[in-house]
Amino acid sequence: MELLKSNKFKLPTLYFITDRKEIKDIPVGIPFIYSDEKMKSYIIRLLEFEILYQAAIRSGLPFNFKQILIENGYKDLEDFGAGSTTYMDYSDSEYNEELVDLDVEYEFIKDTEEFKRFCLDASCYVDPQKLKDLKVFPIWLDSIEKAIETNIHNFAVYNNSMYNKKLEGMYGALEFQSPNRNLIINDISGSMPKAISMFILTHSKNMAETYYCDVMITGSITIIIPYEEIHTMDVEEIYSKVGRNNEGDMFKAFLSEEKHYKTAIVFGDNDHPGGYMKSGYIADSDGKELCKWKIDKIISFHREGTKYLAGYARWFNVDEENIERIANWVKYLD
Question: Residues 147, 153, 158, 164: what is their CA dihedral angle, to the nearest 10 degrees?
Fold first, then answer.
């Protein structure tokens, strides 16, 4: 654990930690960034950019941000074009029943030196608040935020049996209860293009940390990564480990234990657990009978639109008014 420092500017008080256990040692009220050690220099540079950017904004005058950076000693700024488009495999079969060639080699953008230079390019600096104001972010990100934001007051309850220090007796007092977690389910089987699968895996890691989520990933096997272990999630490793087939038995086993999630965010297509049981097909009605998970709300990200519910959400007992179906989300990944 260390305070982030810059040789150029005085940075705001911000701790940098590489071990999740160090969070408990941070003074109350002090912000921190949790990341890998190799990212520290990039984070410091981003903070330096932010200081210069906010100073330019406060001036109220037009400015050339790249020129400002050059004048402040950032000489390694480069301009270059976009890289190659990520390869996307796609199936338009209604039920995706055709065989998928799992031996195909897929191209994927790697962490090259060009990418590192791209991260340092001044033209890449974007003020996130400006993007929100201009509604540049995909609209479905707002849907997620609204669905899973938590008002802490909902979890402050009055317990009549608690000891009240001020009154020195068992007259009751306020106590805080832990809010229900959210859940993200990612179907990364062969019928889901790799570009989409890798995006939802990466985005799930970020969302889980921010919005108190467990993450379920299903393919040839099904695994659950609890919120406490999200920081260990290696996207590439998990993609290879889980595989690109489908299964239902492990999914069924998970659902046999009682759990309560506030919102389930489910990415997938028509593949569903009932169609991939070793013991034979299970209808959705029977799946709902055996499901012991309580889900308050579903946000369905079906790859082909809103006509169908994402397959691995079909066993949850949720009324239609508490189901939100996101349309045209895939176009943001083209």
Answer: 150
Give this prediction's pTM: 0.57
Spatial strand order in the sheet of 222-225: 222-225, 213-218, 181-187, 259-268, 293-302, 323-325
Residue 322 dihedral angles phi and psi, to the nearest 5°: -105, 20
pLDDT digits (tens, 9 = 90+) for 185-225: 999 999 998 888 888 888 787 778 777 889 999 999 999 99
Among 39, 74, 109, the domain-final residue is 74
Verify that 145 and 36 share a domain, yes or no: no
Domain encompassing residue 309 = 139-150+180-333
| Judgement on whether residues 144 and 18 belong to the same structural domain of the protein | no
Beta strands, E only, the chain: 2-3, 15-17, 32-34, 156-159, 173-176, 181-187, 213-218, 222-225, 259-268, 293-302, 323-325
